[in-house]
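This entry is passed on directly below:
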Amino acid sequence: MSRPASRRTAKPRVGLALAGGGPLGAVYEIGALCALEEAIPGLDFNALDAYVGVSAGGFVAAGLANGMTPRQLCAAFIENTGPSGDIVHPTLFFRPAWGELLQRLATLPVQVARAGLAYALGTRSLLAAVEALGRSLPTGVFTQAPLQAQLQQMFCAPGRSDDFRALARRLVIVATDLDSGETAPFGLPGWDQVPISQAVAASAALPGLFPPLQINGRWYVDGALKKTLHASVLLDMGLDLVLCLNPLVPFHAEPVGGRQGSPRRHRLLAEGVAPIPQIVYGGLPLVLSQTFRSLIHSRLELGMRGYASSHRGTDILLFEPDQRDPALFLANAFDTSQRRQLAEHAYQRTRAHLRSTRGSISRSLARHGLVLDGTLLDQRRRRLLADHPRRRLTLPRFGVRAAVVPRSTAASQALQRLDEVLNDLQRTLAAHG
């Protein structure tokens, strides 16, 4: 979102808003943040003025506000290296909620008896009687307790805090009150007595997967039920620049044989990224994924348009995956077996996005005394994981193979640069149209 070209003399106030997206969303955000940290050398992601996180983004935001660099988060969550207290192993997300399951099952005989009696007496139809058995279904399959315990250990390490009030920077973790549908902005005044680890667990309690989390007598679930980013929390603070990361975008499928001459198509093919056919051929899982992502993204777009008019004094830079990149769309949001490859992919794609928009982004950053390191961005062989082999990310659906590290051929580099220049020119013309 472009602003008038005025220069600020005082140190800019910068905030970071991170959306959710499950473990895969955290992987994308960490990879993207590592790319941004390198490319904007004057911006310290541990010294921003405020952070807001939703669901998986809450975990990343809490780590940054506690002094963990994007690279340290990468080591802890993606590489599982470093101090044992910092390692967040993916298995923490998938511990069965035995307590919830047993508690609900214990009520089943009573519910069956009541439903059968009501049907026999004619006070309920068969469908209504069966529907009443839903009370015995568990509200979630996995428990948040192991993750919360690990986060508490991580945030209680020396130099960190599990208390919002003890942090040097404002941190807001957003959940949703299940019984009212209202936003719960943990970390703001009146909401800051809750431990950070507990707030993160509540914000990530996606209904159906995780049971609602009880805090002070109220039940809370995923903060994304209300908004995708909750960037307004930062905008209302009067910040100068807000960086937003959203991992979930709808996919723009390219049917085989379509747009044969587009520079983007040639570039993707040169990098080993094959276009996929129409989404309907992927069956119900892909259709549901596209539907969910479209709903999430439409809310985000609506919010961004509103922010453009309601907060004219703030520059907003939004970073998302390329909607024509199949890697992050086809990957299962809760499949962490390829998290290293996906993190590398997010890192490389963010660098590519910065190159293709370097003109407009450089102008936005310049208004706040920040610069984009073009020399570093042009180092095509640079990688997030130094020991990561040059391999392709194989996605089983449609047999797509996505390049994690682009091939370094003269042809692919020329096509990449052409696409970047054209994208930058298009955005510049649109901004001055």
About this structure: The beta strands are 14-18, 50-54, 170-177, 183-186, 213-215, 218-222, 241-245, 315-319, 392-395, 400-403. The two ends are 14 Å apart (CA to CA). Residues 403-408 have pLDDT under 50 and may be disordered. The first strand starts at residue 14 and ends at 18.
